[in-house]
Amino acid sequence: MSDLTHPRNTIKKIIGYEKVVNIPNAISVLDELIPISVEMAKRNLTGIWNFTNPGVLSHNELLEMYREYVDPNFTWKNFSVEEQDKVLAAPRCNMELDITKLKREFPELLPIKESAIKYVFEPNKKKSLA
């Protein structure tokens, strides 16, 4: 998530959309989670894990942070889920995942907003990427 130029980056994608839907969603900040995955392997932690940061962020919250930290002139428009469904090839899944198990093993894992600021927005401060 911290490489805002990568085409698979969520933020890179939504800053390029003409309109976005303002729905909260679980997000993974890989700069924080990849080191945790290495530690999980070292500890031989296996099984099913919801591998995301605690909490959710909406597209609008992400875009507001993008505007605050990266591009103060950035603007966007919203549209409804119904309008979005008309232009998508397949419906989207938006949810908050239960990460109690992950948080129990790694209590230092930051909530999504704090993690996004620390690992994504602060390092990319005032680098317009649109």
From TrEMBL:
GO terms for biological process: S-adenosylmethionine biosynthetic process. GO terms for cellular component: methionine adenosyltransferase complex. This is NAD dependent epimerase/dehydratase. InterPro entries: dTDP_dehydrorham_reduct, NAD(P)-bd_dom_sf. One of its GO terms (molecular function) is methionine adenosyltransferase regulator activity. It comes from Corchorus olitorius.
